[in-house]
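Deliverable D5.2: sample structural annotation.
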Amino acid sequence: MKVLAVANQKGGVGKTTTSVNLAAGLAAKGQSVLLVDLDPQGNATSAVGAELENPPTLYGPLTGASEVGTCLSPTRIPHLTLIAANIDLAGLEIEVARMDDHLLQIRRALQPLREADAFDFAILDCPPSLGILMTNALVAADQLLVPVQCEYYALEGLGKLMFVMGQIRESGANPDLTLSGLLMTMFDRRTNLAEAVVKDVRAHFQEVLYDTVIPRTVRLSEAPSFGRTIFEHDPRGPGAEAYGKLAREFLKRHEDKLAFVNA
């Protein structure tokens, strides 16, 4: 089971939209996917688990009250399983911070699933802050995917996130954490600014920038309010097309890395 953290401490960049629709896109391609909602707002939970009543969260496993296997909620989407989130996770930051080895708690909670190879991928939807839950997610992850909005201050705060990632590697908490890539989101082709931002980011981060660019569309914005993924809400629209392409590119990168390791 490979673990991907989707994170950016800057809010409103399409982080949860990416977590949900990448997970759904991979599931549509037959991959067994676990979506872990770590944001107390529970937006990812609403998108794929709207019909679930009081689904269990990571609160139990992280406080020692239950095992992670009891937190797995099936969804209506084939091959996609959810660990939900709710407002209880907001208080969890304080409780986890008081624990010994507090940065390792999510990694430990997910370890039984890793050992059982229960899923092909686990996608961690992180809260928009550099708090305990996000740093825990980075320690638990194999790779980090950073959504970056196509705006003037696109790279604002990215340096701090990269610094934290470097600290986690150098501290020994997760020396193998790698950058899956940067993903440009909310691209509006009608503006020169969006084109300029993508060009600028590509010039500086060519090796890690995904070729896929996620457009700004009304359907992508409104899908969560209906409790749907973009593939359910507008399956033939540009949003679904883009996230389908991202899922293919993600799998290709993963397969290429496996081929390199096994060569």
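Annotation notes: The domain at 2-262 is CATH 3.40.50.300 (Rossmann fold). The chain has a mean pLDDT of 91.
The annotation will be released with the project's public dataset once the embargo ends.
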